[in-house]
Amino acid sequence: CIKANAKSCGECIQAGPNCGWCKNTDFLQEGEPTSARCDDLAALKSKGCPMEDIENPRGSKQVLEDREVTNRKIGAAEKLKPEAITQIQPQKLVLKLRVGEPQTFSLKFKRAEDYPIDLYYLMDLSYSMKDDLENVKSLGTALMLEMEKITSDFRIGFGSFVEKTVMPYISTTPAKLRNPCTGDQNCTSPFSYKNVLSLTSEGNKFNELVGKQHISGNLDSPEGGFDAIMQVAVCGEQIGWRNVTRLLVFSTDAGFHFAGDGKLGGIVLPNDGKCHLENNMYTMSHYYDYPSIAHLVQKLSENNIQTIFAVTEEFQAVYKELKNLIPKSAVGTLSSNSSNVIQLIIDAYNSLSSEVILENSKLPKGVTISYKSFCKNGVNDTQEDGRKCSNISIGDEVKFEINVTANECPKKGQNETIKIKPLGFTEEVEINLQFICECQCQSEGEPNSPACHEGNGTFECGACRCNEGRIGRLCECSTDEVNSEDMDAYCRRENSTEICSNNGECICGQCVCKKRENTNEVYSGKYCECDNFNCDRSNGLICGGNGICKCRVCECFPNFTGSACDCSLDTLPCMASNGQICNGRGTCECGTCNCTDPKFQGPTCETCQTCLGVCPEHKDCVQCRAFEKGEKKETCSQECMYFNMTRVESRDKLPQPGQPDPLSHCKEKDVDDCWFYFTYSVNSNGEANVHVVETPECPSGPDIIPIVAGVVAGIVLIGLALLLIWKLLMIIHDRREFAKFEKEKMNAKWDTVS
């Protein structure tokens, strides 16, 4: 939106579907160009433009005519006129288009049962089709009987063609002009195209008139069938076409001439695509060339005619290629004598009616259209295949989702009309396109407004749209004054040589600041000296993400301060466990405790490596005030009056955890080696409260007699144990000595014997 450099609201909304224009007169900062009013909606809102001042018109659709598709069965008593039958819905709507914003609508198509059919049989009457003519003479009544199975309202017509009546296509000798056939064959004079029978519901009349037809002849193999097809397509009144299903059966056993072949006969004027029937004969075949295939496609489509090519096996390949170029056409194989023509027509009609193809008229410049089909059995397609549904039966309903998008506004902004219709059908959807190229506020503009420097522009949508030859935000300058050196002086700051701080251009004595590649970064100020991206940063973010950069200075959000808005005023992170800010031993700065007592540290000044705990710290004062003893007994009234003291009878009566104020339970020894119990807490007002058990727990003295008796008994027992051990050792020693004596005695006896 910013890059569009829109000078007006209309230009802005054409830049993209998400662009809006702020019409608030106080929206622009000094130095910002008028184009800064154009931005995406979120950006405008973030810059302070109220939602009610943002111009953002949206496209819409309105259905004007929406008749339901017709439901009726063949043979129903109710007979409807063709114009009363509806096969496509809706019929008429209005789309309001904004550039880049697609408008979507659904189209429903249902092939009505018992829908009227007009069939025109166009036959090649060159000599090679002689035997075919005999079978076609009874075609009328036979085809009527078959078509009654499909529709109760059927009409049939007949026409014939041969070739252009000039050399070298036919022989122009008088005799050959009277009878082009050889020998005693009686042939009619050659002709280009003849409407033998206009469309009629009388099958007998068809048989009667066709029965009177005679074969003719020509010289070359290709025939002039394209001339005949063109006349059948464009001569609606003479042929008798109704606004119903229109079928053209083209029967031949030869190829065809097309645009350019007329030069052989000296005919160079292109076919004009108009009706030239006089007395049911085509009279301009010698004057206009054959039509081109593209020209035929156009006229057949315009007149909703579906073509069935009934051709012999020899030319199947040629006409199948032609079928691929002509939408809603079919090719059938004609037997050598046309005996299978009825079945061929029935099969071709079923094939044509089983496919629906949507086409649209020529689109205005800058308008695109896309289709999505919802066919039978859950088959969905997009792009080119989204235009059609195949394998549908009469009575089946299919839907299409159609997107229409305007990619630019028409130069004059006028409305356009396009039409969408199924190929081969007369019904269509008419779509009126209305382009949103201007904002509502522009219609409320004030021409020659005093707000635009003495009436040099139109004040609209919060800004001036300058008259031709005037420029500037307020149209205060003429284009002749733009490059004046005197004007440049107004664009320099005092004691500076830089024009617009090198961040803009001096136009009409005013700085128009440059635009940055990043559209969120903006220069502003009278001399473009300000911007919103050169403020102090914290954690890699401008203003720490906690403020707005205005003229290179951070404006912090509530609860933040500092040059980079990185200082939080929130004291919650500084709250100690006792409910005091920084434990009462420091100040909270930018969400962090600055401990003023050097002994304390940590995030909340609660950690003291050299300090006693709460209990030892207050032990002496509690002892002196509660029991009038201890180290501070003499100075108790001076040093220990900083807390309120309450005596309780027992430990159960002491305050318990879970109370609002932080609480410490203490157990300490007094000077008499007795245990005393107390609690210490500080309330929200900073008052210290002590609850102490009024009676210390003193341990009883030792019982001397059991101790002495135990000691004596222990000594006696130890003595007895020592005597027993000594006695045991002596016994062991004596036994060893006796054994030694016995051994020596035995040795003495052996010595005496020897």
Automatic annotation (TrEMBL):
Main subcellular localisation: membrane
One Gene Ontology term of the molecular function aspect: laminin binding
Tagged with keyword Phosphoprotein: yes
InterPro entries from the UniProt entry: 4Fe4S_Fe_S_CS, EGF_extracell, EGF_integrin_1, EGF_integrin_2, Integrin_beta_N, Integrin_bsu, Integrin_bsu_cyt_dom, Integrin_bsu_tail
UniProt key word Cytoplasm: no
Listed GO biological process terms: cell adhesion mediated by integrin; cell migration; cell-cell adhesion; integrin-mediated signaling pathway; muscle organ development
Record-given protein name: Integrin beta
Organism in which the protein naturally occurs: Phaethon lepturus (White-tailed tropicbird)
